[in-house]
Structures are given as structure tokens and as C-alpha cells.
């Protein structure tokens, strides 16, 4: 029996995948509304393949509850935000989940922390909590860390095919957790110690953040000298040892935009390149605003309400808005666009979440003179003709910069 704690973007697909491959699973979440939705047979977010996986898991007998249950193994997949002042991890959600698990778990249970945490988090926040209860780690309770490696938009595929890292104090526990994930994971599963597993996951996301920051800084340099950054990157990437990513309006999501801060907070004075990369990527929404303002002046647009932002999510073809560059940009828009009365539309966001948000693509396009493509959803790629006669700023370079403005 496995109890998956936290049924968000990571915990739910993990619970469903385990159940669909023969593991007895109960999913637990503190949100009764979320649990009720799942018990009605409905998923809580859009993701390719998730509904089919849900059906297979339901047929296999998966259960959902707001209560923690007695189980042999617990997979804890709860949020791990960072404190914006100290840049250190906020481990309160993990600690809270562990406290609840300790109230119901049997002796010898395995606690697998799947949430992404910086190195030393389990040592500082989880292990002492267990010992405070008079329990012995390695005897009464076993600890492991199995950080997720999936991305919204391709979660189901990546859960099955990506490699994984399992960190554990005891090799036999690492192998036991490995066998559980091997029930569905076809990628290589590496076992190591907990601290190494913690660092490995944070390093993976930090590497991508630094690569993106280089591309974004290059975009700023090229803009200052009227050079085409995309052509320069395309040519440079023909070198066999160069792989520059694409610049964009910022970095969102709950991994790449968050995890590097853990290293900045825990290693002050050492994480210098990481800090610089974070500052560059966090500056991009404001850079896009400056670009919008420049284009408005060139095109003679004086009314910000004639400008429309296409896309609210942090990446294409998902409904995940966490740390979205568009939301970041809207927060600082007052300084640039005389009140920020721009219009906004996203085909994946059906509820009203910001002011002046449209829910019909045609009405949105017809209401503006200038469209700023913040997210390269499939819809906008397939309906480029709808933008005919509009001034377009394509921050994602989905149209190759032909007859439109780019970063």
C-alpha cells in the first residue's frame, strides 16, 4: 500500500501511474474540494494523456481521501516555495505532511520526499522532526528522496520514460523505492545518498536557468545593436559543442524559476553566476514591456487598451500559470503603459484571473491593434491568419520574425 500525499501537478500523475501499474494507492490532499472532484471521476488540470491514465487508475481501484492512511510507503509531493527575502526553501509544507504521516504510519514505514528541495533540507527539517517524536530513523522510519523530473505538457510520457534518481540512507531502502518506481518507469533509475539526490535535482534546473539567461542577455545585446538574435543563435548552434536555448519573455513554472534561488539562499557568496542568471531572467518581463512601449511609439499607438497580451500560462499548451512571465509583467505594467489597461487572452484559462481578460479569441483579436505573443500555444500557431493587419510582437519567435516584431 502506498499513500501519495499532495495531489497537485506532480502528486496526482504519480499516484495515477502507480495505480495503473498494479500498485495499491490512496491519494491524499488537504483540499476537500480537490478530493471531491477526483472522487467524481474528474481530473483537476489539463494534461495530455491524464484523463486516460485516470480511467486506468480508477479501474485498478485507486482511492482519494483528505485523510492520511496507514501504509507501507508514503510519497510526499507537496509545494516547496522559497522565501523571497532570504531565498531559502520554505519547508513548512513538507514538515506539515511528515507530521501527519507520523501520526498514522506503522513501524518501518518508508517516507519518500518527492518534492524538490535544496541539499540538506531533509537533514535539517525532516530527520529532526522524526527524532522529536522519539522515533529512530533507519529503524522505526526510513527516509528517501525521489525528486520528480517531468514537465507540464508531457507529464504522462516523461513519467514513464525519463530517468530518475533515488536517494536513501540505506542501500536496501534505495532499492526498495527503486522497485516501486520501476513498476512504471522505463528510464534508468540511479540510487545514491539523499543529499546527492537533493543537489542533483536542483542542479538540473539551475543549469537550464543559466542557459536561458545567456540567451536572454544575448537578446538584449542584439537588440541594442539591431541584430537578429535568433539568426545568431541558429548559426552558433551549428557548432557541435554549442547548444544555446531560445530567449523569451521570462522564466516561469515552479522548477526553473524557483530551484536556483535555493542555491543562492543556501550558498551566499558562492552562487554568483546562478544569482546573475536569476536576475537576468527575472528582468525579462520588464524588458518586454519596454519593447512594447517602443513599438507603440513607432506605430503611433497611444491607448494601452488597444494592446493585447496572448497567453497567461508559463509555457505552451498547458493551464499552469505558476510564476508566469505574463503575470509578472502585469504586476509591473503600471510604470510603462499608463495604468496597464491592456487586454489579455489565453485559451487554457477559462476562469477570470486578471482584469480585462477575454474568453473568446476572435473578440480578443478584434478589440486590439497590437498583439503580443507571450506563449506559443498551438492555437496561435494554427491561426496566424487571424492576426492579419495587426501589429505583432512575437516574444517566442514562433513565426520566424517575418513581417513582425521580435525581442
Notes on the protein architecture:
This protein is an alpha/beta fold. It contains 14 helices and 14 strands. It has an eight-stranded mixed beta sheet with strand order 3-2-1-4-5-6-7-8, sandwiched between helices. Strands 11-10-9-12-13-14 form a six-stranded parallel beta sheet. Helix 1 packs across helix 3, helix 8 crosses helix 10 and helix 11 crosses helix 12. The model has no long low-confidence stretch (mean pLDDT 94).
Give a nutshell description of this structure.
The chain is an alpha/beta fold and about 400 residues long.
Please describe the structure with a list of short key phrases separated by commas or semicolons.
2 domains, eight-stranded mixed β-sheet, 41% helix, 14 helices, 14 strands, Rossmann fold, six-stranded parallel β-sheet, 407 residues, alpha/beta, 13% strand, single chain
Amino acid at each position: 500500500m502506498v499513500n501519495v500525499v499532495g495531489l497537485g501537478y506532480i502528486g496526482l500523475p504519480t499516484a495515477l501511474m502507480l495505480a495503473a501499474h498494479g500498485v495499491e494507492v490512496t491519494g491524499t490532499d488537504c483540499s476537500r474540494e480537490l478530493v471531491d472532484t477526483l472522487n467524481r471521476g474528474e481530473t483537476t488540470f489539463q494534461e495530455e494523456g491524464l484523463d486516460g491514465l485516470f480511467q486506468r487508475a480508477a479501474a485498478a481501484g485507486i482511492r482519494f481521501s483528505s485523510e492520511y492512511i496507514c501504509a507501507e510507503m508514503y510519497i510526499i509531493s507537496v509545494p516547496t516555495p522559497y522565501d523571497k527575502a532570504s531565498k531559502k526553501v520554505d519547508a513548512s509544507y513538507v514538515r506539515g505532511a511528515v507530521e501527519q504521516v507520523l501520526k498514522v504510519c506503522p513501524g518501518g514505514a518508508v517516507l519518500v520526499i518527492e518534492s524538490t528541495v535544496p541539499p540538506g533540507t531533509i537533514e535539517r527539517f525532516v530527520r529532526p522532526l522524526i527524532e522529536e517524536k522519539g522515533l529512530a530513523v533507519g529503524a522505526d522510519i526510513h527516509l528517501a528522496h525521489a525528486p520528480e523530473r517531468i514537465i507540464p505538457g508531457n507529464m504522462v510520457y516523461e513519467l514513464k520514460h525519463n530517468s530518475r534518481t533515488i536517494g536513501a540512507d540505506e542501500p536496501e531502502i534505495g532499492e526498495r523505492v527503486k522497485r516501486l518506481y520501476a513498476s512504471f518507469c522505463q528510464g534508468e533509475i540511479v540510487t545514491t545518498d539523499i543529499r546527492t539526490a537533493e543537489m542533483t535535482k536542483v542542479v538540473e534546473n539551475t543549469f537550464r536557468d543559466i542557459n536561458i539567461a545567456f540567451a536572454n542577455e544575448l537578446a538584449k545585446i542584439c537588440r541594442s545593436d539591431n541584430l537578429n538574435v535568433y539568426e545568431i543563435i541558429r548559426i552558433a548552434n551549428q557548432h557541435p559543442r554549442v547548444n544555446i536555448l531560445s530567449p523569451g519573455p521570462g522564466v516561469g513554472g515552479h522548477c526553473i524559476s524557483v530551484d536556483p534561488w535555493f542555491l543562492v539562499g543556501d550558498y551566499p557568496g558562492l552562487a554568483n553566476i546562478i544569482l546573475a542568471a536569476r536576475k537576468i531572467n527575472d528582468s525579462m518581463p520588464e524588458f518586454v514591456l519596454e519593447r512594447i512601449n517602443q513599438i507603440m511609439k513607432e506605430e503611433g499607438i497611444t491607448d494601452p487598451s488597444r494592446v493585447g497580451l496572448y497567453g497567461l500560462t508559463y509555457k505552451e499548451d498547458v493551464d499552469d500559470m505558476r510564476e508566469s512571465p505574463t503575470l509578472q509583467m502585469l504586476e509591473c505594467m503600471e510604470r510603462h503603459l499608463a495604468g496597464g489597461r491592456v487586454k489579455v487572452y489565453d485559451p487554457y484559462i477559462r476562469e477570470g484571473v486578471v482584469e480585462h481578460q477575454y474568453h473568446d479569441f476572435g473578440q480578443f483579436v478584434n478589440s486590439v491593434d497590437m498583439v503580443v505573443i507571450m506563449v506559443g500555444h498551438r492555437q496561435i500557431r494554427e491561426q496566424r491568419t487571424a492576426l492579419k493587419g495587426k501589429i505583432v510582437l512575437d516574444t517566442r519567435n514562433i513565426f520566424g520574425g517575418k513581417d513582425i516584431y521580435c525581442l
